[in-house]
């Protein structure tokens, strides 16, 4: 069962997970608020606590490039980044997924510049949502720690072979110390197992070419394979989450249904705000209001089918986006959720709230206000305003 | 030349993986408009053409140059003639049609 | 302590407001509580007003919003009063602990508080005598342990000693002084 109960910040929890994974290669470049992850890890390297080859690089683009080289060579490779760092990596993110390299990257959500801001919102990972990476969003340090360990197993599964980023909210989680249960080093090591890639470039007995020109005649087929791998990842994510639960008592799925039994008013949200929403849901339920929360954990692959099943009984649904898609119809999470519900015969009334940009605090009252709006919607049967901006000064 | 049947996405090896040595199956000889001709009286067997040939079409025997080129693969790029030392100039590129068999 | 307890620390950059929130959080964890400890990040400069926060509860803490109505406020530097609204959002039955030479009554007048309890302790003097440095954060933790009354002093001392031994492995001479300062402030804090 579970090992130590310790106090760790999100960044410390992520670094501890990396230590227990003991990757062959880590290449990283510092960026607030994710700097500590690689910094703490480099201390583990210096102290001889891991066997990792730590590559200091001159940018995040190079960090991802080095990880791609290492991973193609047959190594278990990791890096960590945030915000502008992830944006600078963007070109290489597509290459990692296109070459089917199971790189795992702790990522700390931070607003994208400009205006420059170091605090937590989801604009960075949302800008990377179509890079072919698995995206796991975490509510707190515990989930971040558990999910990084699971991600290794998910990515390296022969049906998947895709990279994954595991995110938590900048400062709100990354710099907040809270209680987490850690696995023992041995448990973690056994859970992820040894990395035995089927093909790797340093295999001198079976040489091959990777990343050759792939034009009109084959590119489409290779991309179709990648799409299929993403589809299959859903199943593997659930399997690994179940196995983790069986072994360590904390089960994970594509999303968490919190007080969804008979829930009529539902908020769908990712990240730390899900935790705050749980507090509100508990209070509302005490007062007899049928409030529920659907916390999305896996944004890519997007669980269309499973989500629409889970939301079947809701009367009104608020999708909360911590980033905007700029002149699309609502935020990126809203687009996908709304599209998933299109084929339902009886759809809930659906509305979108863009909130918390640049780390703007979202308190209990603001969330309560959203449930009040949902209640009003069910009474009038109408959605007054589909896209709303929550907590911005007019 | 027989049409190669292209594989569908389900049959292809995952990812953009090309097995090593596939160049041997890809005959570039039909790209050629000029072919190299070696004057064995001038050739000093320095092997510079052999090193530089991108298609391994220069044929060695017992460590010495031969008159022959592997025309299945020689695409007539002319690198061998270009790198042949200026004082030697043993290789000439000759238009295919005129020398045609 | 079935209810959630929220604490806000006020200090100046360099006085250890962040560190003490972490130390206090860890000491509470050692007694089996669920905890959070987090600083407010902004432009960080030595001397600039900073805040940090603690949450403690017997049950798991799921909320991750800011602390806006603390039960206890701890002020490491009384020169902040007037510059920063240290009593902002303080609960009606809450408490504030200030590092000052003033008596609790005098401080209560200065802060203009009515229902809340005011505690004072000269933590700077204690720190200067025990640690030989005006670092009022650890003595103020001693005062907080006394005022909040849900952690045992022995436990806090034991846990803090353990933590400081790790943090100050290269400077072990400061550990004893820090522990003494916690004990002294615990004894010397007065309230009204």
Features:
heterotrimer; A: 394 residues; Rossmann fold; five-stranded mixed beta sheet; 12 helices; globular; B: alpha+beta; 5 strands
Describe the structure.
The complex is a heterotrimer of chains A (394), B (101) and C (192). Chain A has helices at residues 10-21, 35-46, 60-73, 83-98, 123-126, 141-155, 185-192, 219-248, 272-286, 304-310, 332-341, 364-380, and strands spanning 5-8, 25-28, 53-56, 77-78, 81-82, 104-109, 134-137, 164-169, 177-181, 208-210, 255-258, 265-269, 291-296, 298-300, 316-321, 349-355, 387-390. Chain A is globular and about 70 Å long. In chain A, the strands form four sheets. In chain A, strands 11-13-12-15-16-17 form a six-stranded mixed beta sheet, with helices on both faces. Chain A folds into two domains: 5-194 and 211-248, Rossmann fold, CATH 3.40.50; 255-390, Rossmann fold (3-Layer(aba) Sandwich), CATH 3.40.50.920. Chain A has 394 residues and is of the alpha/beta class. Chain A has twelve helices and 17 strands. In chain A, helix 1 (10-21) packs parallel to helix 6, helix 9 (272-286) packs across helix 12 and helix 10 crosses helix 11. Chain B is of the alpha+beta class. Chain B has a single domain, classed as Alpha-Beta Plaits (2-Layer Sandwich), CATH 3.30.70.20. Chain B has helices at residues 48-52, 79-83, 96-99; strands at residues 17-19, 34-38, 58-61, 64-69, 91-95. In chain B, the strands form two sheets. A two-stranded antiparallel ribbon of chain B has the order 2-5. The two termini of chain B are 20 Å apart. The model of chain B has no long low-confidence stretch (mean pLDDT 90). With 192 residues, chain C is α/β, with parallel strands linked by helices. In chain C, 38% of the residues lie in helices and 20% in strands. Chain C has a seven-stranded mixed beta sheet, sandwiched between helices. In chain C, helix 2 links the parallel strand 5 and strand 6 (117-121). The radius of gyration of chain C is 15 Å and the shape is globular.
């Amino acid at each position: 069962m579970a090992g130590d109960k310790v106090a760790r910040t999100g960044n410390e929890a992520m670094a501890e997970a990396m230590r227990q994974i003991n990757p062959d290669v880590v290449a990283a470049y510092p960026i607030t608020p994710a700097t500590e992850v690689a910094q703490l890890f480099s201390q583990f390297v210096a102290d001889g606590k891991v066997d990792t080859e730590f590559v200091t690089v001159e940018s995040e683009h190079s960090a991802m490039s080095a990880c791609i080289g290492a991973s193609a060579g047959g190594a278990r490779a990791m890096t960590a980044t945030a915000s502008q760092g992830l944006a600078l990596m963007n070109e290489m993110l597509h290459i990692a997924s296109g070459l089917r390299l199971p790189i795992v990257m702790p990522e700390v959500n931070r607003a994208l510049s400009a205006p420059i801001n170091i605090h937590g919102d989801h604009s960075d990972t949302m800008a990377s949502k179509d890079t072919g990476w698995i995206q796991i969003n975490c509510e707190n340090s515990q989930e971040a720690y558990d999910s990084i360990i699971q991600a290794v197993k998910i990515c390296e599964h022969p049906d998947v072979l895709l990279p994954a980023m595991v995110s938590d909210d900048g400062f709100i989680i990354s710099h907040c110390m809270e209680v987490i249960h850690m696995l023992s080093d041995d448990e973690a090591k056994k859970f992820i197992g040894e990395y035995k890639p089927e093909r790797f470039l340093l295999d001198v007995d079976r040489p091959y070419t990777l990343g050759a020109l792939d034009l009109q005649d084959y590119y489409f087929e290779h991309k179709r394979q990648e799409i299929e791998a993403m589809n299959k990842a859903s199943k593997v994510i659930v399997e690994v989450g179940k196995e983790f639960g069986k072994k360590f008592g904390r089960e994970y799925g594509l999303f968490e249904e919190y007080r969804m039994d008979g829930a009529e008013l539902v908020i769908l949200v990712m990240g730390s705000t899900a935790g705050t929403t749980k507090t509100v849901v508990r209070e509302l339920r005490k007062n007899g209001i049928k409030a529920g929360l659907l916390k999305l954990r896996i944004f890519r692959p997007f669980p269309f089918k499973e989500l629409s099943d889970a939301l079947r009984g809701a009367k009104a649904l608020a999708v909360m986006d911590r980033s905007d898609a700029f002149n699309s119809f609502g935020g990126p999470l809203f687009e996908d959720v709304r599209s998933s519900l299109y084929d339902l015969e009886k759809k809930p009334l659906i509305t979108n709230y863009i909130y918390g940009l640049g780390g703007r605090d979202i308190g209990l009252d603001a969330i309560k206000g959203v449930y009040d709006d949902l209640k009003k919607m069910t009474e009038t049967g109408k959605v007054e305003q589909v896209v709303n901006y929550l907590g911005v000064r007019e | 030349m027989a049409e190669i049947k292209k594989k569908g996405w389900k049959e292809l090896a995952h990812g953009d993986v090309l097995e090593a040595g596939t160049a041997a199956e890809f005959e570039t000889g039909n790209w050629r408009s000029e072919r190299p001709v070696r004057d064995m009286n001038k050739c000093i067997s320095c092997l510079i053409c052999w090193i530089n040939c991108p298609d391994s079409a220069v044929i060695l025997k017992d460590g010495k140059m031969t008159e022959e080129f592997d025309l299945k693969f020689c695409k007539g790029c002319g690198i061998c003639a270009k790198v042949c030392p200026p004082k030697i100039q043993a290789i000439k590129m000759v238009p295919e049609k005129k020398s045609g068999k | 302590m079935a209810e959630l307890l929220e604490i806000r620390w006020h200090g100046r950059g360099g006085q250890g407001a962040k560190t003490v929130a972490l130390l206090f959080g860890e000491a509470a964890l050692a007694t089996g509580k669920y905890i959070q400890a987090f600083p407010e990040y902004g432009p960080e400069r030595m001397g600039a007003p900073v805040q940090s926060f603690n949450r403690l509860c017997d049950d798991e803490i799921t909320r991750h919003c800011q602390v806006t109505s603390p039960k206890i406020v701890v002020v490491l530097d009384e020169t902040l009063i007037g510059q920063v609204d240290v009593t902002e959002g303080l609960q009606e039955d809450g408490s504030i602990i200030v590092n000052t030479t003033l008596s609790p009554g005098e401080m209560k007048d200065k802060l203009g508080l009515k229902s809340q309890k005011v505690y004072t302790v000269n933590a700077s003097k204690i720190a200067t005598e025990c640690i030989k440095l005006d670092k009022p954060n650890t003595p103020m933790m001693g005062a907080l342990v006394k005022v909040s009354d849900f952690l045992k002093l022995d436990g806090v001392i034991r846990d803090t000693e353990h933590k400081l031994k790790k943090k100050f492995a290269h400077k072990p001479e400061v550990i004893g002084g820090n522990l003494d300062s916690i004990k002294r402030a615990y004894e010397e804090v007065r309230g009204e």
